[in-house]
Design brief:
With 495 residues, the protein is mainly α. Among the domains are: 3-143, no CATH class; 147-228, Tetratricopeptide repeat domain (Serine Threonine Protein Phosphatase 5, Tetratricopeptide repeat). Helix content is 72%, strand content 2%. The protein has helices at 6-23, 27-34, 37-45, 70-75, 98-120, 128-132, 137-143, 151-163, 167-184, 190-205, 209-227, 232-247, 251-268, 274-289, 293-310, 316-331, 335-352, 358-373, 377-395, 400-415, 419-436, 442-457, 461-478, 484-493; strands spanning 3-4, 48-49, 78-81, 85-88. It has a two-stranded parallel sheet. Strands 3-4 form a two-stranded antiparallel sheet.
Length: 495
């Protein structure tokens, strides 16, 4: 096991931060230049520190490391003097046992990294580490010497919240940044447009689609006026609008926007660029929704090739396209292949994003679906319970993302003939979707159909028929060219 000593840790941190500032690169890249990532991560992942096991380390052992960071030490119940270095208040907190002391040490170290993250706009490995360790981020923002009059710093705070899945808080900070930029730079500046794009993205994540489209359109108008259409930034907005309208249930319109982005990205960036891969990936997803599985897998394969050519093998984008492959396998009835592919995606997402991230929750939800389809209801409910906790915490109980997991749990209850519980959850999902999605969309149609199935199982034929007809009407509008879901609705409605 690699052993850290004070001088090695202090030297490594100082060199890494200095490299980041001088070269304008991320700490992750600097770590790759100066030392193996595992050596630094051992500081809080189980290596020995200053010749001691982690549980035996006390703050005094690392006193030389923090002598230049008095503001951090004060936040952690320590005193600081520029001449004397750091001294520690024995009365400031209760004496800590080994594990308690070690957790405190990790928090102290990560607070140091957090302040550099916000002030310098750099990335320390994975910001989710702070979240996973239970660091109070809001308290750190309040205590840290951050210049909240600087739009750059405000934007970094917004991105930090976005990276840990706290989307509503991210949106608040981006709105604050935009207001500052409109005054300092003007409402037609490209930097202001970039913040408008971020606001649009998080409105989409929060289910406020109309507001998202409004901000995307503002950003698009600025970029087209200043840079013309053959610009990567314009392609990015086209791509994101495609995602937004797809989330609203307008899949054919989404394909049009994605293809506009694809043409620009292939021409300017090439077919093996990560941004081009994102467009292939989303095209695959929309083709899957439309039941065009061959086109979906063709686009997914292009996305995977692009990501593997341009990204590390454990990048979240790799997991994203694997999830889409798994979903197609599920649609084709290849359940074992689907579950194994989801497990690979989950491993990447838990490592790269953390166990409480919304994307991790989506993987749990999908794995719950597969377990249900193969009749393993206990495993299905276990995965879905994890997903429900995360989605309610991140999105709230009235968000379309949360409605997805309510619907999936209801399907398991239906299979178990727990009809009352299934109906309650489906009604919650229906209310959320009616309020948060456009009038005609795939998810609402599916909800009406499944409510109809419960009425049918209970012998309530008139209520079942009314639900099936509502689902059929939507699906006829959504899939005029035909779709397996449309045929199922016709069968249930007797048409």
């Amino acid at each position: 096991m690699f052993q850290f000593i004070e001088e090695q840790i202090a030297y490594s941190i100082s060199i890494i931060l200095d490299t980041c500032r001088k070269q304008g690169i991320s700490i992750g890249d600097a770590v790759g230049q100066k030392m193996e990532r595992i050596k630094l991560s051992a500081l809080y992942r189980g290596g020995t520190v200053c010749g001691k096991a982690p549980e035996d380390v006390v703050l005094e052992d690392l006193q030389p490391l923090y002598k230049n960071y008095g503001h951090i030490l004060n936040h952690n119940h320590c005193a600081f003097s520029p001449d004397a270095g750091a001294t520690f208040h024995s009365e400031a907190r209760e004496p800590n046992t080994g594990e308690q002391q070690w957790v405190h040490l990790r928090d102290l170290f990560n607070t140091l990294c957090f302040i550099h993250e916000i002030n310098n706009g750099i990335e320390f490995m994975n910001i989710n580490t702070l979240h996973m360790l239970g660091v109070d981020i809001e308290a750190a923002i309040e205590a840290a010497p951050l210049d909240l009059s600087d739009p750059f710093v405000v934007g970094n705070i917004a991105r930090m919240y976005g990276s840990i899945g706290v989307y509503r808080e991210a949106l608040k900070w981006f709105e604050r940044q935009a207001q500052m930029q409109e005054v300092d730079l003007g409402p037609d500046h490209l930097d202001t447009a970039a913040t408008y794009e971020q606001m649009a993205y998080f409105h989409n994540e929060c289910g406020t689609y109309d507001e998202g489209m409004e901000w995307y359109q503002k950003a698009l108008d600025i970029r087209l006026n200043k840079l013309g259409e053959e610009d990567p930034g314009v392609a990015s907005i086209y791509h994101n609008i495609g995602k937004l309208v797809g989330d609203m249930g307008s899949e054919d319109l989404a394909i049009d926007w994605f293809n506009k982005a694809r043409v620009i990205r292939e021409k300017i960036l090439g077919k093996e660029h990560a941004e081009t891969g994102k467009t292939y990936n989303n095209l695959g997803y929309v083709y899957e929704i439309l039941g065009k599985y061959d086109e979906a897998n063709e686009a997914n394969a292009k996305a995977l090739d692009a990501f593997r050519a341009s990204l590390r093998p454990d990048h979240p984008h790799i997991a994203m396209v694997m999830v889409h492959f798994a979903s197609v396998y599920e649609k084709l009835g290849q359940y074992q292949d689907s579950l194994e592919t989801y497990k690979q995606a989950l491993e990447i997402r838990e490592k790269a994003l953390g166990p409480d991230h919304p994307h991790t929750a989506r993987t749990y939800t999908s794995m719950g679906l597969i377990c249900r389809l193969v009749g393993d209801f206990e495993a299905a409910l276990a995965y879905l319970a994890k997903a429900r906790i995360i989605r309610e915490r991140v999105f709230g109980k009235d968000h379309p993302e949360t409605a997805v997991v309510y619907h999936r749990i209801a399907k398991v209850y239906y299979d178990q003939q727990r009809y009352d519980e299934a109906m309650d959850l489906l009604q919650q999902a229906l209310n959320i979707r009616i309020a948060g999605l456009k009038e005609v969309n795939h998810e609402t149609a599916l909800t009406w159909h499944d409510i109809g199935l419960i009425h049918k199982a209970l012998g309530e034929q008139e209520k079942a028929q009314a639900c099936f007809l509502k689902a059929l009407k939507m699906r006829e509008e959504l899939f005029p060219g035909g779709h397996p879901d449309l045929e199922e609705s016709r069968k249930e409605a007797g048409r």
